[in-house]
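Justification of computing resources. Each target in the renewal requires a structure prediction run like the one illustrated here; the chain below, 242 residues long, is used simply to show the kind of job we budget for.
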Amino acid sequence: MNPRNAVEFDGVLVVDKPSGMTSHDVVAIARKYLGVRKIGHCGTLDPLATGLLLLVLGRGTKIQDLLMSEDKEYAGTMVLGATTSTQDKDGEITETRPVPDLDRAQIEDAFRKFEGDFYQTPPMVSAIKKDGVPLYKLARKGVTVEREPRFVHVYASEIQEIRLPEIDFRVVCSKGFYVRTYAHDIGETLGCGAHLKALRRLKSGRFDLSRAVPVDEIKQGDPRAILARALSLPEVSRLRGA
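Resulting C-alpha cells:
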C-alpha cells in the first residue's frame, strides 16, 4: 500500500499465527496489507508455534511492554526420548534415549516439579542478547555461553493425553517463559529427554483466540473490515479491567 494512503488506527489486532512464519513476518504482512505505518508485536512466537499474536497499531505501541508482561496460556505436544539443539522439532537431534514404560503418576510427578516459582535457564537458540548479540546468532556459530537463569512461574498445568512417546499438555505461565525449555526439562526429569513437537498460544492476559484474525484473511480481506475487528485503546483498557 502506498505510504500516502496509510491508515491511522490506534489499538490492538489479535492474529492467529500459522506455523512456519516468524512474528516479524506477521508484522510485515500486516503493515503491507493494512496500510498502518506503526505496528509492533507483543511476545515473540517461534516459527514452529501457532496461535495468538497481539499486534499493537499506532499509539497502541505505547502499551506494548504492558501487554507483553501479562501471563500466557499454551497447549503443546512434547516427544520423549530425543533432545534437540533448539529444544523443539526444528533443531538437530543431539541425543536419543530409550523411553521407559512410564505410568501417568510418574509423568504427573515430573510435571509437578515445574509448578509455582522456579528458575529456568533460557535456551541458546533465543533472542536474548549477550553483550548486544542475540544468542541464536552465537548458536549458529557453534558458540555456547553461560545464560542467566530466569525466575518464572507456572500457574497451572494439565496433562491432556499420554500416548508415549508423546504427551499433550497445557500450561499457564508468566512472561519470559520458554515452553520448549519446559518440555526439555520435564524430559530430563523423566530420564529420557524430550523436545517440543507442537505449540499453540491460546491466551495472553485477557486476550484469547475468539476474535483472532488468520494471517490469510489479512492478505486477502478488506483492510477496513480487518481493522473493524481490532480493539481500540478504550476497548483494550476495559478488557483488561484498567
